[in-house]
Write a structure and sequence with these properties.
With about 350 residues, the protein is of the alpha+beta class. About 25% of the residues lie in helices and about 30% in strands. The structure holds flavin-adenine dinucleotide. The site of flavin-adenine dinucleotide (FAD) has 43 residues, from α1, α2, β15, β19 and α7.
Length: about 350
């Protein structure tokens, strides 16, 4: 079989990339072993504001409108609501509201910082006030990936298996994997890229994250609340609460420690009783310099990578998937900040 692109991994990175490749009329085969991944656990929140210093998220002015448009269009195409406009309500810590008001005159971020709300929410302690973030939304990432796969299945050859590097042959003409000859191979393996022998020069810094699914009768479902943890309404009194960040334990299992951390943080502002229904863990594919990585391998011209979406995959993936496909099909250069070549000093010291 001869195809244009072989894609390894079908999480958020792989799914957005495959969609762009197919849109351009390229032929694609996919390898994914169905291991539960970061994309299956993610809350999918797109929030342009980093609360710690009240600074904008990287490239938010470009990425936020781009991703909003992308998910809206995809909802229409797939005829399923994967995109939800919402309000993120930041519950302030002591002194934070004054900083917020001051930042409302900073042109870099002012348009995303809504005015402090005088409103109260039953069952929520808002002693130091709360303010809205403008233009936030959330995406049902796992649902989107599943629907995209079904939508594209007649155009895709899919191998449900763990990619076997011993079966990969690289040449100047292309790549061969088992019976597949491809022009290019693109790795979208999430945090498991750390096991990929071709990309050892990239400083991956995977971060485990855990979430709880709670039933909280009586809590308003109009906002994503945020104060050290987010509380995302899923409907019918169900809420996703997260997330933890752990750089040392990269095991797949959910932990008691994370559950206690989340419940402790939640208890600082939630005054309603709740029931914990379930807990999930995933590993975010992050990189030391906190930027994604998308582009060609520095030595093998038929090998590419799309990874490093970290904690912001929902905002980053659509834009950089499109940019990567432009690079492949039209040779249009990408933002150097995401080019794997930025790490080549490690490869050729
Ligand atoms: C708790 C938590 C909460 C999060 N919340 C948000 C949020 O609110 N907003 C946001 O934007 N982001 C959030 N994220 C981050 C988001 O999940 C990631 O940015 C994104 O999903 C990463 O997608 P990916 O495709 O790169 O990796 P993954 O989702 O890990 O997908 C990788 C895929 O590759 C496959 N694979 C890997 N290696 C192989 C192999 N050798 N052979 C075959 N298949 C292979 C895997 O099975 C998987 O399907 C959260 C993450 C976590 C853990």
């Amino acid at each position: 079989m001869h195809i244009d692109c072989l894609v390894v991994g079908y999480g958020l990175a792989g799914a957005t990339l495959v969609r762009e490749l197919l849109e351009k009329g390229l032929t694609v085969a996919l390898v994914d072993d169905g291991t539960k991944a970061s994309s299956q656990v993610a809350a999918g929140i797109v929030n342009p504001v980093i609360f710690r210093h009240l600074t904008p998220s990287w490239m938010a002015d470009v990425l936020l409108p781009f991703s909003r448009n992308y998910y809206q269009q995809l909802s229409d195409l797939l005829q399923v609501k994967i995109f939800h406009d919402t309000t993120v309500l930041r519950i302030h810590a002591e002194g934070e509201q004054a900083h917020w008001v001051q930042k409302q005159s900073d042109p870099c971020i002012a348009h995303w910082l809504g005015s402090p709300t005088g409103q109260s929410i039953p069952g929520i302690n808002m002693t130091y006030g709360a303010s809205r973030v403008n233009e936030a939304f959330w995406v049902e990432i796992a649902l989107m990936i599943a629907k995209l796969e079904t939508y594209s299945q007649h155009q895709l050859v899919t191998l449900c298996e763990t990619f076997d590097f011993r079966e990969l042959q690289l040449s100047t003409e292309g790549v061969r994997y088992k019976s597949i000859n491809a022009e290019k191979i693109i790795f979208c393996e999430g945090f498991r890229a750390g096991e990929n022998p071709l990309f050892r020069f990239i400083p991956f810094r995977p971060v485990k994250g855990e979430v709880l699914i709670l039933k909280i009768p009586g809590l308003a479902e109009d906002y994503i609340l945020n104060k050290d943890v987010f509380v995302l309404p899923l409907g019918q009194c169900l809420f996703k609460v997260g997330a933890t960040y752990d750089w040392s334990d990269l095991g797949a299992s959910a932990t008691t420690k994370a559950k206690e951390t989340l419940m402790d943080k939640l208890g600082k502002f939630l005054e309603l009783p709740y029931v914990v229904l379930s807990q999930e863990a995933g590993i975010r594919p992050a990189i030391a310099d906190r930027r994604p990585v998308a582009g060609f391998h520095p030595l093998h011209k038929n090998v590419l990578i799309f990874n490093g979406l970290g904690a912001k995959g929902a905002m980053l993936a659509p834009f950089f998937a499109q940019e990567l496909v432009r690079l492949i099909t039209e040779g249009i250069g990408m933002n150097p900040a995401v080019d794997p070549i930025r790490f080549t000093r490690t490869l050729n010291p």
